[in-house]
Design a protein that fits this description.
16 helices; DUF3541; signal; DUF3541 domain-containing protein; two-stranded antiparallel sheet; mainly alpha
Length: 375
């Protein structure tokens, strides 16, 4: 309750702020093709469409759940450094603090972790979609992964990015050290179920100065998904492969905080260039936008792949709804947040920035949620 009380006035103040007001005259993007229009006009049309989506989300940002609000606000702050996202970032910090407080006080012994993971696994067991069924089937022999990889590591890494840590940081690190993460990261079945998540997690471990199994994961990933076998993959497995590739780049950038070196990941960029048409045909807008942003993170703004991904996203926009809908045409804001914030970033890229941190933007961290402290 104290967390909510601390952040509530700020959220209310931003809700009524002109910074989040929707323009009454949204720009209409150019309909000229990239090949026919001057380069500057094409770029302007991309930016106009990014603004259209931004207005749709920012007029209702604080109606989203805390995770979605924080996901959007943090990414937009890293792009713009605009303090209007401060409340969303605080909400994200509060979410991280709440989860780490829970783990440090109530879920840290092997017995407690077992009970927790059984409950987490049951949620996947009850779902009927193919991906959830695969994840449940693959992970039931390694149920602690739901706790360690899916929940604990992400929260610790996010606090770390802010320049913070939990007050029981060492206690939480000791939990991580009980497990050999290569057991998950080098398992082909786990990769088929959790490629993007594992990519995040192996880099988070490195970021936290714990186990470094990045090399093992990449070797196992490439062996699990050899390029010569793309044609034999189902569309869902092909998409899982591309998600894994995009998240290797994202995680290496510490999520849009620093640029990446194309040569370090030449095998990924060469693959994208050779297979972009298949990617556009066989994957969803989320994945397409991520591929384009991977190029932007490497400073490859003028690569033809970027224009292809931008054109695909621009074509997918539902202009009446002011957003990129799902493949089924759904325009629900909450479910579309991930897809649409990626679309904004792709269409109006502002560069990689290592912000916000407690040292660089102290005003954002005036009221740090209970349980988090400066590193």
């Amino acid at each position: 309750m104290k967390l909510l009380q601390a952040g509530f006035p700020l959220i209310i103040s931003l809700l009524v702020s002109p910074a989040f007001a929707v323009s009454t005259s949204a720009n209409v993007p150019s309909t000229e093709s990239a090949s026919a229009a001057p380069r500057s006009a094409v770029l302007t049309s991309y930016q106009q469409d990014a603004e259209l989506i931004r207005q749709t989300y920012e007029s209702q940002l604080f109606t989203l759940p805390a995770f979605k609000m924080g996901h959007y606000g943090l990414r937009m702050y890293r792009q713009t450094q605009d303090d209007k996202y401060e409340a969303a970032i605080w909400s994200d910090m509060a979410r991280v603090a709440s989860r780490l407080n829970h783990f440090a006080t109530e879920v840290h012994t092997p017995e407690q972790i077992q009970v927790y993971t059984e409950k987490r696994a049951q949620k996947y067991r009850q779902k009927t979609d193919d991906r959830s069924k695969l994840r449940y089937s693959v992970t039931k022999s390694k149920p602690e992964y739901f706790y360690l990889g899916v929940d604990l590591l992400g929260s610790m890494a996010r606090a770390n990015e802010y320049g913070l840590k939990h007050r029981d940081d060492e206690k939480l690190r000791q939990i991580i050290r009980r497990y050999d993460f290569s057991d998950y990261a080098s398992d082909p079945d786990m990769i088929r179920a959790w490629a993007a998540q594992l990519a995040n997690q192996v880099y988070w471990l490195r970021q936290l100065g714990e186990q470094d199994v990045v090399g093992e994961f990449i070797k196992a990933f490439r062996a699990t998904y050899p390029d010569t076998q793309d044609a034999s993959l189902s569309d869902k497995q092909f998409m899982n492969k591309i998600y894994g590739l995009t998240h290797i780049i994202f995680a290496a950038s510490e999520y849009y905080q620093k640029p990446v070196n194309e040569h370090e990941f030449k095998w990924i960029y060469d693959y994208y260039r050779a297979n972009i048409d298949a990617i556009l045909e066989r994957t969803k807008e989320d994945v397409i936008a991520e591929v384009g942003i991977n190029f932007l993170l490497a400073g490859l703004d003028n690569d033809p792949v970027v224009d292809k991904t931008r054109a695909a996203i621009q074509k997918a926009i539902d202009r009446k709804a002011g957003m990129v809908p799902s493949v089924d045409g759904e325009t629900e804001l909450r479910d579309g947040e991930h897809r649409n914030v990626l679309s904004i970033m792709l269409l109006d890229w502002r560069g990689a920035k290592a912000v916000p941190t407690v040292s660089k933007q102290p005003h954002i961290f005036d009221s740090i949620p209970y349980g988090l402290i400066a590193k």
